[in-house]
Amino acid sequence: MILDAIDKKLLDLLQKDSKRTNKELSNKLNLSVTAVYERIKKLEKEGVISKYVTLVKKEKVEKTFVAFCHIKLVQHTQDYVIKFEKEVANLVEVLECYHISGDYDYLLKVIVKDMDAFREFMVNKLTSINHIGSTHSMFVINEVKHTTAINI
Amino acid sequence: MILDAIDKKLLDLLQKDSKRTNKELSNKLNLSVTAVYERIKKLEKEGVISKYVTLVKKEKVEKTFVAFCHIKLVQHTQDYVIKFEKEVANLVEVLECYHISGDYDYLLKVIVKDMDAFREFMVNKLTSINHIGSTHSMFVINEVKHTTAINI
DNA sequence: ATCATAATTGAAAATTTTTCTGTTTGTATT
DNA sequence: AATACAAACAGAAAAATTTTCAATTATGAT
After folding, report:
1. CATH: 1.10.10.10, 1.10.150.80, 2.160.20.10, 3.40.50.300. Which one for A5-45?
2. Based on CB atoms within 10 Å of each CB, which residue in A136, B43, B125, B142 is the most buried?
3. Span B69-101, pLDDT tens digits
4. Neighbours of A51 (CB within 10 A)
């Protein structure tokens, strides 16, 4: 699907605030309400828009401790990799998991209540997954920037 | 603000899909539409809900190259830190920036079109910020998990 | 028990989304 | 240039949802 300038502007607005009404959007884009409506429907149908979510402030729900964990596997057989990825994806403390290049195999973003909860997580959940070789954790001191909006 | 079990369930549902109607939610929560409405408004007012956003599939907008960049500053004077953080926050390629513990000072999540765009970004944008000592980049081979929903 | 406060409900009003019909616009073809 | 076709657009009506309102029920403190 080819995105024209209006689609891009529209996506930009929606990425920043999905609660804007079609009327608001139609004003900003100099279009009719229906035109906006149909463009959005098309973007949804084509999968450009994947979902609409509510963002929760972690400070308000006692999940202020954020850590990034590097993980190395002992082996890289298909079996081990598949199993590891499935188990990690099931951990609610892991919001993100990436297979990456470099010294380690994976990078995880973990969010828990505090250092104590993190220790608990490491001991009882993460390192109890088999085939993990080594880990290296980095703690977030301050979140300088965090957006979900891609520049289109 | 104290969150009861209903609030938590509600936040869980909204984090996964903010387009659910109050009627749908009222069914799942065994409440009236207005009760759901009032609870949501309160969560917004108290700042538990920070915003509603649209998520765009990066593959559909030609931003499939994701990298994590470690950055070390040459000095850590207040001035340098403030300036660096401000400049980094202004870069549209940088979706996330964290001040972290460990060997490096910062961890950045960068999203661009391809390796060429990444090189361009490194040379012309990132490393042109003053006071950067060294960088170390890791490239995302595969995104195993990526959610915005915190387990509450 | 009584009071005050907060949460909940159902109905009405206001707003928004969605559908529908017809028009315009752009593009390709002759 | 004229024609045909499809895609995008516009305005109005219908459907659905959000928001307001008044009244009721629960909750906690005195």
Report:
1. 1.10.10.10
2. B43
3. 999 999 999 999 999 999 999 999 999 999 999
4. 16
User: Could you tell me the two tokens for B4?
Assistant: 């009861």
The residue type of B119 is R
Of the two residues B130 and B12, the one the predictor is more confident about is: B12
pLDDT (mean) for A103-116: 97
Among chain B residues 12-71, those with CB within 7 Å of any atom of strand D: 21-23, 33-34, 37-38
Domain locations in chain B as residue ranges? 5-45, 58-139
Q: Residue B133's pLDDT is what? A: 93
Which nt has its C1' nearest the CA of A38?
A: D8
Rg (CA), chain B: 20
What is the rounded CA–CA span in Å between residue A54 and residue B51?
6
Nucleotide nearest B33, from its CA to each C1'? C9
Q: Could you name the CATH architecture of A58-139? A: 2-Layer Sandwich (3.30)
